[in-house]
Amino acid sequence: MIVVVGPSGAGKDSVIGFVAQRFVGRADIDFVRRVITRPSDAGGEDHESVSDSDFDARLAAGDFAVAWKAHGLQYGIPREALDRVRAGRIVIANGSRGALARFRQVFPKVVVVNITASPEALAQRLVARGRESEADILKRLQRQTPDILDADVTTIDNSGPLDIAGSRFAALVAELCGMTLAAS
After folding, report:
1. Which residues of 131-168 are buried (b: 16+ CB within 10 A; e: fewer)?
2. What is the pLDDT of residues 101-126, one digit of tens each?
3. Residue 35: in which H helix or E strand, if any?
4. What's the pTM value of the predicted model, to 2 decimals?
5. What is the CA radius of gyration of the chain?
6. Residue 33 in contact with residue 177, Cβ under 8 Å?
C-alpha cells in the first residue's frame, strides 16, 4: 500500500493522476477511489460521494479498510484495497497524515509518499480550487500536522512543474514494482 499524504493544495491528486497515466494498463498497480462525504461536483479527485448517514452505515458494516474524519468530511478506503494488496498488487491511495497509524495497522506493508509544496503554492492552489472560504483556507494553512519523519516516508516537493514531482513518484512506484521506467 502506497499512501500519499500532504497538506491541502500540495497537489496529491495531480501527482497521483500523473502516475496513473504512466502506468495505465498495468494489472499489478491499482489506484483507490475514495469514498467521501463531499459532493461529487466539488472538484478535485474522482471520488464516490455519499451522505454522512450512508458513510456511517457502510463504516458500521465494515466496508472500509481505513476511515477517518478531516475538515468536516469523512473519508474511507474501501476494504477491497486490502484484498488487492493481499493479492500482490501495489495499491496507491490518497490518505491522511492523521490516519497513517491506522493504515499501518491494517495493511501488511505501507510506503508513505509525502507530497509538499511551498506555502505560496499551497495558498494559490487552495484559492484556485474554490471549495472553501478565505477563513477556511487560512485555517488549513495554519493547521499543525503530525510529523511523519519515519524511515518509510518519501517526501516529494510539488512546488514546481507537475512533471518533476510526478516523475519522481513514478520512479518510486517503478522501483517498488521491480521495473525500470523509461524516461519521458
Report:
1. beeeeebeebeeeeeeebeeeebeebbbeeeeeebbbb
2. 999 999 989 999 999 988 888 878 77
3. strand 35-36
4. 0.84
5. 16
6. no
